[in-house]
Amino acid sequence: MTLKPAASKPAELTLADVVPGQHAVVSSLLSGGDMRRRLLDIGLTPGTQIKCIGQSPLGDPSAFLIRGAVIALRRKDCRDILITGDGQNNSSRSLSPGYREHIDRNHASEAVSWD
Q1: Which of 9, 17, 112, 6 is CA-nearest to residue 63?
Q2: CATH architecture assignment, domain 18-106
Q3: What is the pLDDT along the chain (115 residues), one digit of tens a residue?
Q4: Distance between CA atoms of 84 and 101, rounded to whole angstroms?
């Protein structure tokens, strides 16, 4: 009798996997309680587009552009945010060209590195 390996499920990406300059889209939140409420309050709902704009020298926390606001999140909290996308700029799918230009023009200086 030959055993077949179980179908491997692709690894789920979390917000902790995103590096500065990459974009992602929230697919779901794993956290519960007060942390879930906080994440929802800052606009992290399924479908929300996020861009990582910087990391501290040790990688914790990281700064993200979320719905036009810059939010810093700890790595442990980022691990509870599942994302989709390939890390490329996939924001063009739902942002109008004018709004995308506004974000690019007004937030270009926010892509910082704290080296």
Answers
A1: 112
A2: Roll (2.30)
A3: 444 444 445 568 999 999 899 999 999 999 899 999 999 999 999 999 999 999 988 878 999 999 999 999 999 999 999 998 754 554 444 445 665 566 566 655 555 545 4
A4: 23
For the record, the structure tokens of 30 come out as 């794993």
In 3D space, the residue among 100, 75, 80, 90 whose CA is nearest the CA of residue 19 turns out to be 75
Cα 22-50-23 angle, rounded to 5 deg: 20
Q: How many CB atoms lie within 10 A of CB 24?
A: 26
pTM of the model: 0.65
* pLDDT for residue 54: 92
DSSP the chain: -PPPPPPPPPPPEEGGG--TT-EEEEEEE---HHHHHHHHHTT--TT-EEEEEEE-TTS-SEEEEETTEEEEE-HHHHTTEEEES-SS--GGGTS-HHHHHHHHHHHGGG-----
